[in-house]
Design a protein that fits this description.
6-stranded mixed β-sheet, Transcription Regulator spoIIAA, alpha/beta, 40% helix, elongated
């Protein structure tokens, strides 16, 4: 998955004082330095928190649509899954354990196609990923993209990461180690609506 230029601009602003000053004074021009062309009819404002000021951005009206999409997700263990794989929905996270192979990949695919909002697919308990499993991931990602949503692969074991790398899939997915989300800075970046 390509790097998010808005996140890159924020990271740069945190490490480059001169860029931070430009981002605050002329955000449109500073964002252009990162390859972000903001349409003329879009207003851009950049603020920073201080010791005595907290800046919060509330989601727009589309947040109600997101809540509705999230409500449509199932909850708890998925019952119709072949032996060898366990799937469980926990809010917008789908937790997979076991083998994603020829027999079980269709169940994973079916669950991903049920979602209409961002999904975190937790793979920490997955021990095997076959070609049909890779196809299920791609199908899920393509489906979610039609709803302006994304599939994140979370806590990917080294063996599974090696499979993704071997077939050239590492750049196709956002891969996250959820323990890094305990860092408030990382969590704030991941929560940004820009993907």
């Amino acid at each position: 998955m390509a790097a998010n230029p808005v996140k890159q601009a924020i990271v740069r602003a945190c490490t480059d004082a001169a860029y931070r000053a430009r981002l605050l004074s002329d955000p449109r021009k500073a964002l252009a330095e990162e390859g972000i062309e903001v349409p003329a009819d879009i207003e851009v404002r950049v603020h920073e928190n201080t010791d005595n000021k907290i800046v919060a951005v509330l989601p727009g009206p589309q947040a109600a649509e997101l809540r509705e999409r999230t409500k449509q997700l199932p909850s708890g263990p998925v019952v119709d899954v072949p032996s060898g794989l366990g799937l469980e929905w926990q809010q917008t996270a789908l937790i997979a354990t076991g083998r994603i192979d020829t027999n079980t990949a269709p169940a994973l695919r079916r669950e991903l196609l049920r979602a209409f909002t961002d999904v975190d697919l937790v793979l920490s308990g997955v021990t095997f990923l076959s070609s049909p499993g890779l196809a299920a991931l791609l199908a899920g990602q393509k489906h979610l993209a039609t709803y302006d949503s994304h599939l994140r692969l979370c806590d990917v074991p080294v063996e599974i990461r090696n499979v993704l790398e071997m077939v050239g899939f590492l750049d196709l997915f956002e891969i996250v180690n959820r323990s890094s989300l305990d860092d408030p800075y990382v969590a704030a970046l991941m929560a940004m609506p820009f993907h």
